[in-house]
Amino acid sequence: MKAALIQRIESKVLLIAFQQSTPLPKLQAFEAHMRFYGKPLIVHYYNVDPAAANPTGRHFDSAIAQEIWGQARSFFRQIRFLCRRCAPYPRLLFDYHN
After folding, report:
1. Which domain of life is it from (predicted)?
2. Of 21, 27, 42, 95, which sits with the fewest C-beta atoms within 10 Å of its C-beta?
């Protein structure tokens, strides 16, 4: 089923991976599947708690949050520029954990 979902992806994908919440082998498997099917992928790994990017949490890290936000904004600008027939913003396709 996951292969079928990956094959349906039509645009570039940004993966911001928090290794403390998702085991590295799962992240690497997703990356390998994307590359196997020739899907464009940008990956940024962080060995921090996902709460590091949440300003309301006790693990908030302003520098990491700003870096991640900058990566996301850059990605959204690329998608809008490269994909003229796409909606203004890419949609979330699925949760690879399930």
Report:
1. Bacteria
2. 95
